[in-house]
Amino acid sequence: MTVYSQTRKENRLLPLDLLRGLLMILMALDHANFHIAQQHSLGEYWGGPFPTFSTPLHLLIRFVTHFSAPGFFFTMGIGMILFASSRKKKGWRESEIWLHFLMRGLILIGLQVILNYGQAWSVAGSRALLWYVGVLAALGVGMILCIPLLRLKPIYLAGISLGLFIIMEFLTPDPVLWGRNFNNLVGTTLVYSGGMGEFWTNYPLLAWVELIVLGLLFGNWIQQDAKNTYQKGIWLGLVFLAGFVLLRLFNGFGTIRPLPIGNWTDFLSVVKYPPSMAFVLLTMGVNLILLGLFSVINKPGSRDWNPVLVIGRVPLFFYLTHIGVYFLMGRLLTPDGSGLGLMIVLWAAGLGILYLPARWYGLYKSRQPDRSWVRYF
User: Fold this and answer.
1) How many Å apart are CA 368 and CA 373, to the nearest integer?
2) Percent of the chain with pLDDT over 70
3) Peptide bond into 49 cis (omega under 30)
4) What's the whole-number average pLDDT of the chain?
5) At what angle do helices 277-294 and 2-32 cross, to 10 degrees?
6) pLDDT level of residue 263 (50, 70, 90 thresholds)
7) CB contact burial 294-326 (16+ within 10 A = b; e otherwise)
């Protein structure tokens, strides 16, 4: 019975670990592009300049990394449900589970502050903002905000996620107001990207909570019937992609602002900060399809060494270490930036450098008791 239960648990988590690992690898490509090539679009916001890319390859490299952030929020929501369920079966009280999520959320926020003060988002000759709300802070606050939602039934979770998906589009200011309302701390923190002085947010908190709640919904479904849920995700992903195509063709509501469409590269340009409906439909459509496809992969013999799984099982450890690797590469090897070719080579080299530490940490973490502090990382 124990072996059977463990096998079922591994089969249920395998698609999530594979998706998370792939998203971490794509995220590393984006950060290598930032630190090593020093090429990052200034657009993708609800206002200001439109995104520009010098070649289609530059656009594609940025495009494939778009799937990472939505996937992180989504899989975190799933993970919260599965973690709470597994700990309840082990005798944890609800208050202990809530405290775990509270502590983990605070740790994520604290790590964001540490990275900010360490100038992790600067390149040679530049200085980053000290009070930057990045993905770690948004994940941390989102986790804390969603703790009470663990009690809700799937129907209510679906309503909250859908409601935020639509409402946030209406709450986002008109693009002509870009720069005029950056002194609105509540607005820039919760709804739309912006800021003043040493403060800037790329990840307004409520704008990303909808994806955590969607993850909570999927987590409930996975508990009921994992195989059917993953397959359902493929069809839902296709519906999302069809919705994205329609929104981009109409190029109005759902895109936050009408982005010019002159060719296929323009068509794939979407507003990420905050995530427009088109951005969410595109990225989550692909993520749901990938999750469903990964659910049919079942090769136990290669799991321990599969680099995607190795990275996917230690996402926070990989996040923190990969920033250091590419930061140092950029400062030491390409202080003036580089071409895409060299950047891709160094990105791959960085993944190679991080593989063994990630595998070691994953094995180490798996041997620790459930209440160990290591479980927070």
Assistant:
1) 9
2) 95
3) no
4) 92
5) 140
6) confident
7) bbeeeeeeebeebebbbbbbbbbbbbbbbbebb
Nearest to 343 by CA among 324, 329, 323, 355: 329
Beta-bridge partners for 45: 273
Torsion of CA 329, 333, 338, 342, to 10 degrees: -80
Bridge partners (DSSP) listed for residue 201: 133, 194
Name the token pair of 294. Answer: 């990964």
In this structure, are residues 141 and 102 in contact, taking their beta carbons and an 8 Å threshold? no
Measured distance CA(57)–CA(72) in Å, rounded:
25
3-state secondary structure of 342: helix
Instruction: Give residue 204's pLDDT.
Output: 96
**Backbone CA torsion sign across 301, 305, 309, 313:** positive
pLDDT in tens, 113-171: 999 999 999 987 788 888 999 999 999 999 999 999 999 999 999 999 999 999 999 99
Q: How far is it, in rounded angstroms, from Cα 175 to Cα 187? A: 14
The total of other beta-carbon atoms located within 10 Å of residue 227's CB is 12
Token readout for 170 is 């209406």
pTM of the predicted protein model: 0.94
Question: Containing H/E element for 190?
Answer: helix 185-190
